Each structure stands twice: as C-alpha cells, then as structure tokens.
Amino acid sequence: MLKKLLLVVLPLMLPTLIYMGYMLIERRKAVASGGTALPWWAGAPWTALVVGGVALAGLSLTTLALTGGSDTTATYHPARLIDGRVVEGDTTPSAPAPGR
C-alpha cells in the first residue's frame, strides 16, 4: 500500500500540492496587504497540474520498471497450494550454461 502511495499517488498529486502551498502563501500576503484573497483553485492552471502529475507518475513507474525487478533470464515459479497453504510465487536465478 505504501509503495503504491509513493509511486503513483504522491507523484500524481505533487504539482497540485506545491501549487496549493504557493497559493496559500500568496493568499496570506494579499490579506496582510489589505487585498482580497481568492480561493486557491480560482484560476488554477489545471491542465498544467494534471499533465505534470501524470508525467511525474509515469516517470516514477518507468524508473521502477527499468531499475527494479528481477533478472529477465530467471525462472518464475507461480503461486501454488501446498498442504492447504498458498505459497507465493518466486523467481530463481537461472543456472549458468554448461561450459562457461
């Protein structure tokens, strides 16, 4: 759950959270100088925020795909039922070719 939160939700929301923080600071400055404060979402660059969030989430997932995981030549053993218990799937490294 935490992995999904850090890899998908946080990058997706990060541009909006940064914009919200910026607008809250600007709003306080406007109120302190006697001006009127608009809500942070009024006039927000929604297209840029959504595109930025999707791009960051895609970048984080691409980075995970390219740097994580197991060896592509390893052997995958699927999940199986042994003595009434589910044993999760796993991978074992492939054996080196004979003569190497």
SSE order and pairing:
Blueprint: H1 2-32, H2 46-67, E1 75-77, E2 80-82, E3 85-87, E4 90-92
Helix pairs in contact: 1-2
Structural notes for this entry:
By secondary structure, the protein is of the alpha+beta class. The chain has two helices and four strands, in the order ααββββ. It has helices spanning 2-32, 46-67; strands spanning 75-77, 80-82, 85-87, 90-92. The strands form two sheets. Strands 1-4 form a two-stranded antiparallel sheet. A two-stranded antiparallel ribbon has the order 2-3. The longest helix is centred in the first third of the chain and has 31 residues, at 2-32.
Distance between the termini: 42 Å
Largest sheet: spatial strand order: 1-4
- How many individual helices? 2
Counting helices, strands and paired strands, the structural category is alpha+beta
Helix content: 40-55%
* Overall mean pLDDT: 86
The total strand number stands at 4
Low-confidence stretches: none
Proportion in β-strands: 5-15%
Summarize the entry for a quick read.
This protein has 100 residues and is α+β, with helices and mostly antiparallel strands.
